Amino acid sequence: MRTALTDETENAFLIVECADPARVEDCRAATDELAELVERHLGATIAVQELVTSENREVVIA
After folding, report:
1. Which of 2, 15, 30, 33 is packed most tightly, with the most Cβ within 10 A?
2. CA pair distance 62, 54, nearest whole angstrom
3. How far apart are CA 62 and CA 56, in angstroms?
4. Per residue in 1-48, pLDDT tens?
């Protein structure tokens, strides 16, 4: 089992890979929708949501 989220999980980190550079906007739309769904249905607070690309190579997670 690679990832286990439980009712006691307080922090989670999710990586979504877009293997096709032509579909970056599809990936962005999918991660936006995922963030909205976990906020609405799981009560999550999204602290950082960023798409890493060749132009945007790093994200600071504080």
Report:
1. 30
2. 22
3. 17
4. 667 888 888 888 888 888 888 999 999 999 999 999 999 998 899 999
Q: Which two tokens stand for residue 30?
A: 């999918």
Q: Would you mind telling me the total number of residues written for the chain in this entry?
A: 62
Place of tokens 């600071």: 60
The DSSP 8-state label assigned to residue 35 in this structure reads H
CA distances from 16 to 7, 51, 60 (A): 22, 9, 17
Residues 6+ apart with CB under 8 A from 38: 44, 46
Q: Tell me the two tokens of residue 34.
A: 């995922």
